[in-house]
Design brief:
Blueprint: H1 5-27, H2 37-53, E1 87-94, H3 101-108, E2 115-121, H4 150-165, E3 169-176, E4 180-181, H5 185-193, E5 216-219, H6 227-231, E6 256-258, H7 259-267, H8 272-275, H9 291-299, E7 304-306, E8 310-312, H10 332-339, E9 349-351, H11 358-363, H12 365-369
Helix pairs in contact: 2-4, 4-7
Length: 372
């Protein structure tokens, strides 16, 4: 009996390996992707180039039109139509194939002079090039990981690239690969550029700012139930003194920023030093949902609407992920329901849709989605 002990122990150890691989990820904290010094220096160089390239943007307070580069305005002309129109930069942040590229192709059709596309794709994941208007729109990217500051870096990288690439980019929309449009391109463009946010949305107790009435659409919340847990995710006093709890905010990682706010984001160093730190409590750590709302709230609260134009259904969410729509749920009624918001603006995008929703969405694209 005792002679079999080594054999029994060896056999038990052999059986334990599968269990170890199964349960270890649930017991041990995951290893986050760290932002290396070379990557940080690369980003800083990119941000500096983008900032310098934007110095010729007019600094006058154009309260009735987006700010355009001086070199694109024809001298001596009094006809506004003689100047190029501002563009929307669509910034796709993805770690998988752009399954809804055909739907976005239809959305962008016949509007090539009014938009640009930039894609940050995780280089550690093999992604099939979507082609079409997405051809050659991939930017120099770094590895990303959920619930880590790498997603902040990726969004900042997209913003800086778009700022540097085209001075006519005036709005910057961060989009997920799981996002779909809810309206036609004309509707989105006209809503952003010909329907500025009402002056009545300014907080009555705030002093006027230099921001134009074209504001950023970003969710900024101060009453989220788990706000304290999120604030102390890196340690109880780590965010001090730069960010006291009273100034900490939460919101969606998908947003639309004005050009001046995009510049504000890539110029920031002070808050970034805090948000780039690793979290101790990974279950409350979502830096990409904290950094942008906190920065905008602290630097220019009246320059943002405090709500997003991307609809997300958090009913029945699991593991920090929102509800994912399946093909059986796709219908004209769903599209109309997703458009409805509590603001003066309709929701313009929605997430999260499974890849197999593409066909039913294309089936109703022309008659429902792009018919406003």
């Amino acid at each position: 009996m005792f002679n079999n002990t080594p054999f029994v122990l060896s056999f038990a150890l052999l059986l334990s390996f599968p269990l170890l691989f199964l349960f270890a990820p649930r017991i041990l904290p995951p290893k986050h992707v760290l932002i290396s010094l070379p990557d940080e220096l690369d980003d800083l160089a990119l941000f500096r180039r983008a900032t310098l390239s934007s110095l010729d943007i007019s600094t006058t307070d154009n309260r009735h039109s987006p700010r355009l580069p001086r070199r694109h305005v024809r001298l001596g002309s009094t006809d506004p139509s003689s100047s190029p129109k501002p563009k929307i930069a669509f910034l796709f942040l993805t770690n998988s194939d752009l399954h809804f590229a055909p739907l976005w192709e239809t959305f962008f059709a016949n509007h090539s002079a009014l938009y640009n596309i930039y894609i940050h794709a995780d280089p550690s994941v093999k992604i099939s090039p979507p082609g079409g208007v997405f051809e050659s729109r991939f930017i120099a990217a770094k590895k990303t990981e959920r619930a880590s500051p790498t997603l902040i870096s990726a969004a900042r990288r997209l913003l800086a690239t778009a700022l540097l690439d085209d001075p006519l980019n005036s709005y910057f929309a961060v989009i997920s690969q799981h996002c779909i449009p809810l309206h036609s391109f004309n509707f989105v463009y006209d809503s952003l550029f010909t329907k500025p946010v009402s002056e009545s949305t300014r907080s009555s107790d705030s002093a006027p700012t230099q921001s134009s009435i074209y504001r950023s659409f970003i969710e900024i919340l101060s009453d989220e139930p788990q706000l304290w847990d999120r604030y102390v995710a890196r340690g109880e006093n780590v965010m001090l003194p730069e960010i006291p709890f009273s100034r900490f905010r939460v919101g969606s990682q998908f947003f639309i920023l004005t050009r001046e706010h995009a510049l504000l984001v890539i110029r920031d160093r002070r808050l970034w030093r805090k948000f780039r730190l690793s979290c101790l409590n990974i279950h409350s750590c979502y830096p990409e949902e904290h950094y942008f709302p906190t920065l905008l709230s602290m630097e220019d609260p009246d320059g943002a609407t405090h709500y997003t134009l991307t609809r997300v259904n958090w009913t029945g969410s699991t593991g920090g992920h929102p509800h994912t729509y399946r093909p059986v749920e796709v219908s004209p009624q769903l599209i109309r329901k997703l458009r409805v918001s509590n603001s003066t603006y309709s929701f313009m995008f929605a997430r999260k849709f499974s890849p197999d929703c593409l066909k039913p969405l294309l089936d109703i694209a022309q008659k429902v989605i792009f018919r406003d």
